[in-house]
Amino acid sequence: MCGIDCLLDLSGRAQDSQHVKERLERGLDAIAHRGPDGGGTWVSNDARVALGHARLAIMGPDARGCQPMASTSSSARAIVNGEFYEWEQLLNRLCPNYSCASSSDSELLLALYDRFDGDIHAVLPHLRGEFAFVLHDPARAKLYAVRDRYGIKPLYYTVEDQQLAFCSEIKGLLAMLPSAPRWDLSAALNEGWRTGNSTLLSGIRWVKPGSLLEVDLHTNSITEQSYFVRQFPLKSIDDARPIDALVAGVRSRLIDAIRVRLRSDVPVGVFLSGGVDSSAVAGIVAHLLKAKAAPALDPSVPPCTFRCFTIDFDHEWSEAGIAQRTAEWVGAQYCPLKVDEEMLCQYFEEVIAQCELPYADLGCVAKYLLARFAKQQGVKVVLTGEGSDEHLAGYPIFRGDRFAERDAAMGQCEDAKPAKELLQPLPSFYGLPANKPRCSTSARPPLAHLAMHGMLSTSHHHEGLQEWAESFIDPSGGDAALDSLLDSLPRKSQEAIREDKYHPLHTALLVYQRSTFVTQQLTHLGDRVEMAHALEARTPFLDHHLTQFIDSLPPSLKLRFDPRTKALREKWILYEAARPFITPEVYERVKQPFVAAPRRYPRGGPMHRLLQRLLTREGVQAVGWLDSERVERLMVKAFGKDEHMTGATDDAREAKVATAQALLCAEMCLFAKRWGVEKLTGQEKARVAADVGDEVRKRVRRVD
Length: 704
Known about the structure:
The protein is α+β, with helices and mostly antiparallel strands. Among the domains are: 3-226, Aminohydrolase, N-terminal nucleophile (Ntn) domain (Glutamine Phosphoribosylpyrophosphate, subunit 1, domain 1), CATH 3.60.20; 606-691, no CATH class.
C-alpha cells in the first residue's frame, strides 16, 4: 500500500511545471506516513498532467518498483496504491510478451492495459486485490481514476479553479489547493458524508467503491461509471444446491483468499480478536504453513509459525483471553497490547486527524495503537477479519430484515421463525432506534422499507447545534440521507431495490456495505489507522471471488435461527466452513462486539478531561455552527456538573449517548482547527458554503 496524488489542468491555460511539481510534492508531504520507502513525481511536458507517489515497498522492494510507473510498450503511466494478487500468473497467462521493468505487482496494471489496447473495462475484471490507482494515457487522451470493488483503499478528488486533483487522503488535497476549505453543512448534518460520496468539506468527494472516473483530455469531460455491482439471487427463486456443497464452497474460497494474501517480500502477521473471523484467518494461515502451501511469513519467529497481535482492554469486554488460547491452539506467537482509557484519550486527537471523518467511539484509537505496535515489532503486513460481518449478517441490526420475509430460496427447508423478543427494535449507539418497523411497500424512499433504516438516517450533532444551523437538518427525519444513499448506488442496484427483487436482508447488506462500512469500518478501523504507521492490511473476507459466492447464498445460511436452542446464529455458514480451523470455544461462542470503552465514563476521568480541554467556548465557536451552551449541557448530561454527578442522567446508556455526541462535537473542533476551515458566521454564508461553488457537482456526469 502507498499514497498517491495527481493534478490535471482543465483550463487550457499554460502551466508552470515547477509550480505544478511543488503543489504535487506538498500533497505527498502531507501523506508521507503512507509511503516511507521513497517517493516520486512525474510532470508531463506541457505540465497539464502530474502524478505523485509515496512508496511503501512490499512486493519487489528494490528501486525498480518505484512509481510513477511507465509502460514498457506504450506511453501510459500509472500510480498505484494497493496490492494485486496472483499478478505473476496473470502476466504469464495474458501478457507473455510484456517486458517487465520490475518485480512489483503494480506493473500488472500497465501490462493488462496494453494487452487490451487501452480498454480499461477489459482490464478491471482481472484485478484481484485492494487498490486505488490513476492511469494516464496520452496517446488516447484519457485519464482514469479507479477504486477497488469494496472501497478498501481510499481515493478523494475535487475540482477547484479548473484543476482536477486526486489524493489518497483529504489532508493531501488540502495541501495542494490554493484556497481555504469550507464546510458542507448539508453533508455534515444529514449524513451525506456517510450515505453518499460527500465529505465534511464542500467540493471534496471520494471515488465510489467499484467505480471509475474517466477524463477525456480532448473535451475535459469527466464521467463516472460503476464497473462492479453486487448482485443477489432473486428472492422468489429456490436454491437447490446441497448445503454441504455450499459450506465447502465458502471454505475453499476463503482458504484461497488467504493463500494469495500471504505472498509478501516482508514479514506478515495477523490481527486476532476472540471472534470467528480473525480466528478463522489465523487457523487457515497455520494450516497453509503446515501444509507448505504458503511461504515462511516472518524470519523473526520459528518456521511454520507467525505472530498474532491482540488488543487487551482493561474492562470486562476484553477478548485477550480467548485470543491467547486461539493463538496457542494454532501454534502462533501471541503478542498482546494492553490498552486503557488513558491511552485511548492520549492518542485521540492524533487518530482523528488521520481518519478525517467523524467517529463517536474510541475503537479507532485502539486499532491505531495495535497497528503501531505491530509495526514496532517489525511486521509490515497483517491479515485482518474485516468484511465478514457485512457479507454474512454479523450485526444485530440485520435481524429485523432477515426475518421480515420468508427465505423462499430454501423452500421447505426454511428455518423456523424466532421469538418476537429476539427481533425487537435494537437501540442505536446514538440514542435513536437502529431498527424501525418496516414501512408499507408504497412508502418512499424505497430504503425506508428496511428495518435498519433508522440507523442509516440518524444525524449525530443535533443537540449541539446553533438554532440557525438546524434549518439544514432534513425535516423528513432522514429521508434525504436515504435518498442520497440510494442515488449513490449503481443503477442496477437501484432498480433491484425499487422493484423489490432481493430479500430484505440482502438489500440491507448492500446498503450497509456502501455506507457505514466504507466510511467507518474501512476508514476508522482500517486503512487510516493502519497506514498512519505504513502498515499494510489485507482483507481476505473482501476477496471478490469469495464475496460473490457468499452473495449468491440464501439468507437463512447467513443469519439462522436454531429452534433447538431458541437462539440466533449470525454468520452460520462461516462457522461451519471454518470449523476445522477454529477452537471448539470459538465455534460455540456467542458473538461479542468490539468495545473499546466501559459502559460509562467517570467524571474526572481521562475522557471527561479530554472533552473539557477540546470543548472550550472558543473552540466550539470556531466551528461556526455549534452552540457552546448546548454543548455544555451535553457535557452535564454525560458527566454531571459536580463531583456528585449532579445533573447527569441516571441512565448509563443515555450518558454514553451524550458522551458520543460530545465526542463528535469535539471532532468538529479538531477538524476546524487542523484544516483551517473557513468559519461560518451566519445562515446565508452557511448556505453558500454548502451549496455554491461545488465544481465537482457541475462537472462529473454519471453514465452507468
